User: Fold these one by one.
Assistant:
Number 1:
Amino acid sequence: MAEESRVLLTLRGLHKAFDTQEALKGIDLDVYEGEFLTLLGPSGCGKTTTLRIIAGLEMPTEGAVLLNGEDITRLPPEKRQVNTVFQNYALFPHMNVEKNIAYGLRMRGASRPEIKEAVARMLELVQLEGYGKRTPMQLSGGQRQRVAIARSLVLSPRILLLDEPLGALDLQLRRQMQQELKRMQQTLGITFIYITHDQEEALGMSDRIALMREGRFVQIGSPAELYEQPQTAFAASFIGETNLLRGQAAAVKDDGVLMDVGGVNLPCSSDLWISPGDPLLLSIRAERLYMSKTPVKEPCQLAGTLVENRYAGGERVCMIRLPDGQTLKSRHPTEGEVPCHIGDPVYCWWHQASAVLVRDDLEEHP
């Protein structure tokens, strides 16, 4: 988000313990007005706990939640300008679509004309005009989710929290709803905080992604920043498909470092503090690792043996074993490819700018 964007929600030093298990370990986060922020991470990393604390459904063990600079940590859910959409829809089965959407407004004491106008506006937003008299049982899964979203949005919350809202939908409908959700968010300008463990969903919908692991944020940034410039091995491997090449620093230069892999020195860009002899880990995306039967004029190049060769429609997936035993994956289009066979000697290469040195956090347990 742009630097001048206004901070709407602030999390400071949030800890949450359930009995002896610490679900959140002191997280800090600023969420901006009108942004689509996704909390991404594996199951059990603390995403839902974070969302429930923002919603007021859980109290933090330590820390504070501020909305517009006001401390709302102890406010009950109904006093917050925050609404939540859950995966299971939570619609009232005995009420039709119109009454489901209008429920919150009726509880607030809104007038009949106000309710009628707001419900019509929401039905148009979620593209369900003409469905107002149907019951939830007469709707598809995607339609029920739209009603749940409309019911939350009709109250004009400052923030909409969405906890894996598309998890119960099939793949095609899920992709369609991703586009719909992004359209709604941009139309209304409301801040969305979205939970998913689906990296593709996070990359395609978010303004920023907060990647979580074991109760902490690993990296926060735009989808492009997390994909192109991962800071750790976990971030590199969780988002996208990457190779993690191990070596050690042979020499440190002004503009980077030479990485020794099996006696071959490879130039790497880096602004990290590195000393000669330090172990290094280089992230190379599978689609940016190229393969050739003959050497190429690239400084980032390693010889190896083709040990797997799999056709996957418009692309081919190859595994190359290096002399030191490491294996690298190359994913490339099949159009115009030079045929290779298992056991062939090959060369794998990449552009220096496409590879990133990352911190090795794969064995860490924060």
Number 2:
Amino acid sequence: MKHLLSTKDLGSKQAVSLLDTALEFAEVAARSVPKLPTLRGVTMVNLFMEDSTRTRLSFEAAAKRLSADVMTFQATGSSVSKGESLHDTAQTLEAMGADIIVVRHSAVGAAEELAHSGAVATPIINAGDGTNEHPTQALLDAATLRSVFWEEPRGRDLAGLKVLVVGDIAHSRVARSNAVLLTALGAEVTVAGPEEFLPEDVSSWPVASTTDFDAAIHAEPDAVMMLRVQHERRTAGDQVSLDEYVNDFCLTEERANRLPADTIVMHPGPMNRGVEIASAVADSDRSVVLEQVRNGVSVRMAVLFEVWGDRS
């Protein structure tokens, strides 16, 4: 795997292999010294042109557990404010010794364009490009589903699981990546949101779609993934009334109580408590949000290991 740019690049076999590698790396966290020498001498750079907490720190933790050196670039206070391009910034980082570059950018296709431009020879990992994709988030979500539902997850896909993704689907790179990956792994995915929050091309997605959250709950999903409303990506003309949204699409305690007893609740973060999810649900025994965070480190360890091991 030269780069990781999109879940579309991962077949089910390669995805399962990555998830199995992540399981092996997850065992490192239980050690008294949770480190491996696997990437000693390798420098990973977080090239983040958008704000991030979980993804940025998770990649840092993953790299350090593999003994790699880490440099973190943030656009604020950098030469980007002076007009420097993504290509020039990446070339500068490569000249400084970057061996792997993890890119988060507001522009759709930024990571892919950089990877195929010839500007750098460094492996590129997409950590989120606008409203397009977030492949490592989808992988960690798949890892979480496997760990919860399969007693022995190694080598397992997600066949038979019903996953409901709810919220601002149109602007969610998490929804797009999960729709592709979870479906490829055998899950049945349904996306739900107000009509204004569903993408115009949702009929071409490999998922079912609905504007009726309560009906989707009645269908007894195995997992419900709540997404925040991405106000920063919406325009003034496509806003939905907050009161209406909370009334129709918030995962309240009452709605959660109507789910099957073993249905789990997921969220990629950051959460807007009281908007898409009630605090009582976010902090309940159903919630696997922190498990998602933990799996994020081991999944990103697996991705770093794979891209560094395939530099031909």
Number 3:
Amino acid sequence: MKSNTSLVGIVCKDGVVMGADRRITAGSIIMGKNFQKVKPINNYLAISYTGSVADALLSEKLIAAELKLKELKTRTRPTIKEAANLIGMMLYRNIRTPSMVPSIVGILVGGVNEDGSTELYTVEPAGGVYKVEDYDANFSSGMPYILGLLERQWKKDISVAQGVELAVEALKASTQRDSASGNGIDVFAITKDGVKHVVSQEILPNYT
């Protein structure tokens, strides 16, 4: 199964907003309608992903374990940049390991550092890591629709509250055109107070 999804990450003046739809697909078949694709890894970092569901779920577990191990070994909490680069290295290694079915997952990484600053990174399926200065949708199937809307509506001084509203609009716009996205949306706000699930909405079909 592949999660050809709609992801969105938005940089705000007072935090980061991350959101995604809930649909998972296998080709043209909808396999699931209530799959949460934004996952808090701990109290300071969240990830969202697109790609193979099995690879994404395994990556989620490995990321949590690797970050905890790093924290125990160094006796310090990793910065969001360090976490993103660790995830990038994991994806780089996975996709270059000989396999009949290569692991392909794109991940958005958002979090808050110990000094209260927030950061958003996009990690491409091949392992490249890039800091996001405005907004991104990684390589999700809804990316063209999301980026098109954000190109017109995102502002540099946007607040987290405004970013949440914009993320909801971007995801809803994508679900109207991208057949691999839909059924519901989840939006998380990441601020100096931590990671919070601020929007949980089901998108119901209307029959007349």
Number 4:
Amino acid sequence: MSEKKAPSPDEESEPLITDKRRIDPETGDVRAGVDDSAVAEGLSADDLEILDDAAADLVAEYRDRAARAEAELQNFRTRVERDRQANRDAVIAEVVRSLLPALDDLDRADGHGDLAGTPLELVAQKLRSGFDRYGVSSVGTVGEAFDPAIHEAMVRIPNPEATSDTVAEVIEGGYTLGDRLIRPAKVAVQVPADE
């Protein structure tokens, strides 16, 4: 029986590591040059070819799964951002809707000349600039074509000189937030007179 000698401190060496994996873990490709006999003893060349094809199919399948998961994640992020923006717009619209009666009162007072030179004139300016900052704009001006999507006709005024339905007077202003109508403008509409 032969005895194994313990290595002397002078003979210490690094351990030898052999990577016999057929699929490269970094690239996912099938490695060339791996000794098939060392990996799979007793397998025929046909069996090894089948194993190579199966490994390549698995790599392709997992790459496809990873690409799909990445696309689903991107779609999810887009959907979350779109929903977040819609919720933000809905909250702003609700706050603006609750402040509109106060703004209407300030507009009526301004129309009568009651705001000029008073502290309320500054309050009205700040309120309007706050609405502008969030993208709230007014709709409904005298002389524009009547649009039932943004105007609510309160009165129809026949006029022989009118050629189409136009806004003759704005009774209560309307407002939009971006493309969303918060409140339609209540208007008096000038219509062509029937002869």
